[in-house]
Amino acid sequence: MKGFRIFHDSEYFREKKYFHPDSSMAEKWIRAVLEHAAYFEVKTKYSVGKPLGKGKFSTVYMATSLEMGSGEEE
Predict the structure, then answer these.
(1) CB 43 within 8 Å of CB 33
(2) Which pTM does this prediction carry?
(3) Hey, which bits of the chain come out as E strands?
(4) Helix (H, G, I), strand (E, B) or coil at 36
(5) If pLDDT is split at 50, 70 and 90, which confidence band does 49 have?
(6) Is 13 exposed, middle or buried (0-12, 13-18, 19+ CB in 10 A)?
(7) Are residues 48 and 27 in the same domain?
(8) Is 74's pLDDT higher than 60?
(9) 46 and 26, same structural domain?
(10) HEC string for 8-19
(11) Are residues 30 and 47 located together in one domain of the fold?
């Protein structure tokens, strides 16, 4: 059995777990979720710096685009 979980480090969001006895079907689910969420690893595109602020659902960080080079902050 294979699956995945969706979670957030917050008291407002409960963890959700999804499993399927067929590993190939679970892989299809995982690919579909990643595709539709437009998921990418932030640190592959940005150099993450100091935190700028924190809210109820997230923390905002200073980041520099690795593609644009130094001096181009986003």
Answers:
(1) no
(2) 0.42
(3) 2-6, 16-20, 46-54, 59-65
(4) helix
(5) very high
(6) exposed
(7) no
(8) no
(9) no
(10) CCCCCCCCEEEE
(11) no
